[in-house]
Write a structure and sequence with these properties.
Blueprint lengths: L1 H35 L6 H34 L14 E4 L2 E6 L3 E5 L2 E7 L3 H6 L7 E4 L2 E8 L1
Parallel strand pairs: 2-4
Antiparallel strand pairs: 1-2, 1-6, 3-4, 5-6
Helix pairs in contact: 1-2
Length: about 150
């Protein structure tokens, strides 16, 4: 079962890497556009354009910073061993879906199965903390029964 954890961890790592690559590309694009922008006789228009490019670069930097935080959090998640109770790094199967407790990365497809990659700090992740197979909890009016914890 730790192979399942490793595969999910790798898919989360790819998700973060794609976010980092996209942020870097946005920063590079903004820098290149700024370098190509030349001052015209319409000074205000030039300054507005440069400001917009700076804002685009700042957004890219913020996205890169957030992706780095996700990578740091993901690197703290262990893929070794199993646990009987839900904790960070657990793979959880319920009657209403499968979950990987690591980072918030949305739905991850692995073969013909789907897993929700969620943070332990997310509302549903916090509800699950400490649950074992057979435990039940309610989230947003929907009942969940934990069928397996790996």
């Amino acid at each position: 079962m730790s192979q399942l954890k490793e595969q999910l961890h790798q898919l989360c790592t790819q998700f973060v890497q794609e976010r980092m690559d996209n942020a870097r590309q946005a920063i590079l694009s903004a820098e290149q556009s700024a370098a190509q922008d030349t001052k015209s006789s319409a000074g205000d228009k030039y300054e507005t354009g440069r400001e917009m490019l700076q804002q685009e670069k700042d957004r890219g930097m913020a996205q890169l910073t957030e992706a780095n935080k996700l990578l740091i959090a993901l690197n703290r998640v262990s893929t070794a061993g199993t646990s009987t109770k839900i904790e960070e790094g657990s793979v959880v199967r319920t009657n209403n879906g499968n979950f990987y407790i690591a980072i918030s990365a949305g739905v991850i497809k692995l073969g013909d199965e789907s897993f929700f990659a969620i943070s332990a700090a997310s509302p549903i992740g916090a509800k699950m903390q400490g649950c074992k197979a057979g435990d039940e909890f309610v989230m947003n009016g929907k009942g969940y029964m934990v069928t397996e914890v790996v």
